[in-house]
């Protein structure tokens, strides 16, 4: 078996313009109908009834399919089952159609909502006709469970065809999630628009929505897992089919871990056998391949600790620095770092990779460094060594006075000489605090922000917190108003290893800049976070400063939100009542913290 040439698509019926106009009017009426009302449910039912008479034409029309997807999101079980039954004879045409595939996905994604939904009990003689209609629906149509199993069986019987089609692969991936009783957010809510050049979407596991499924669903999922094993050569190397295998690994790890382990072993064994004469690991070639590397990322992420240790020893050890320098292979290395759960494995990886930290940063593969820091933070080991290596990589370890500038360097990913425009120096110069204070803060990068956030959660973040405290008011304001930099202050406020005294000292330069902070999209969010953890005295200082420019604050969209959050009007007009309320709120927070701490 394998992915053969795609058969020519059968001609789909055309949707009449007047029919499309009807469904668009129905969609507009639906948008204007109040949620939860009986009229809305009746309207959805009636429109879906009409859609069933021309389901194929509607599903394969670009505009019609969008209307149908909106209707499916609101459909009760019976109309959805009737629609699926009408579409099922045309499964291959729909699944491999650019519009029809979206309709099938939307229908399958209603299963978590509707599977096992009991038929509503009607009361009163006025509903007798509707009861009879529902009884006819249940007698004359397959259940939702049977329909999903039927669709799944047809996909299983032509698995390589559906999985190898650009549009059909989306249907297969959605079906795998539904059969496994878990819907992953990354598949259902993917951001639109082009990805910035040089950026790669991570293969990390996203949060999943779990729901109960019958045993027949899991049995069919296991049969599909066997389909992957039968054609592992295709699924391990084909650009489109590989995506289905990646999704299967994520679902199977949660529901059928033994089947997941078998698939992982099959992938590694097949790819290793494809390059038996390679020096070192035969898997290295595929770690550098655009398609296979994404599959290997998932293999690494779903591997249990013993299997991950074996993967490292047989295929990664001795090659970490070369992988970190490669434009593609550095991503599987990042996933390896993300997946480490034992101090023993981290120690082996850190020993081999840490000497190349500066070179990795110079090549622009910052994700490797942030993943390494994340592993150190997660496991609580090698943190002092990692921080020292970063100080050396950014040329701020010696003289010791340069450490005061480490945070701006880390956040901007610039070395000391580049940041302060010193040129090449034979002997590193002392840090000039006055000159540094007069220089505006450089742009904070997203990878740099992530790097600093990890460091602030280290067990001893003192050098980074001290560098943050050395920023001037305008520099700290620029950091708080930056989209990426604001998360640095979030980490400062949330870190359990930063003391209250260190926080107060680091945030002190913001005094006098609270209004500018409040009138910023990102700065207002930082100010809200500061307010949430502030003492009564600190809240009085913040409110007093904001109150001096109340009119300016209220005229700004973000400032208006901050004024409401701090009850500024109450503070200015009824100060004593405001203080009592804030004091009571502070007591409740302390009591809650004590309970959570216990």
Task: Give a verbal description of the structure.
- This protein is mostly helical and 598 residues long.
- Among the domains are: 117 residues, no CATH class; 64 residues, no CATH class.
- Helix content is 67%, strand content 1%.
- It has a two-stranded antiparallel ribbon.
- The chain is globular and about 75 Å long.
**What is the CA-CA span between the terminal residues?**
59 Å
Percent of sequence in beta strands? under 5%
The stretches of 5 or more residues where confidence is low (pLDDT under 50) are: 119-140, 186-199, 201-205
Query: Share of helix among residues?
Result: 55-70%
Question: What is the typical, i.e. mean, pLDDT?
Answer: 87
The count of strands amounts to 2
- Helices and strands: which structural class? mainly alpha
Q: Number of helical segments? A: 41
Radius of gyration, whole Å: 29 Å
- Give the overall form: globular
Biggest sheet strand order reads: 1-2
For the sheet with most strands, the description reads: 2 strands, antiparallel
Topology of this protein?
Blueprint lengths: L16 H16 L5 H15 L2 H5 L2 H11 L4 H11 L3 H5 L4 H9 L2 H4 L13 H13 L3 H14 L1 H6 L3 H13 L1 E3 H4 L19 E3 L4 H16 L1 H4 L5 H15 L1 H18 L9 H4 L2 H13 L2 H12 L3 H6 L4 H10 L3 H11 L3 H6 L3 H14 L3 H11 L12 H7 L3 H4 L13 H6 L7 H11 L5 H8 L3 H9 L4 H9 L5 H8 L6 H5 L2 H13 L2 H12 L2 H5 L2 H9 L2 H6 L1 H23 L1
Antiparallel strand pairs: 1-2
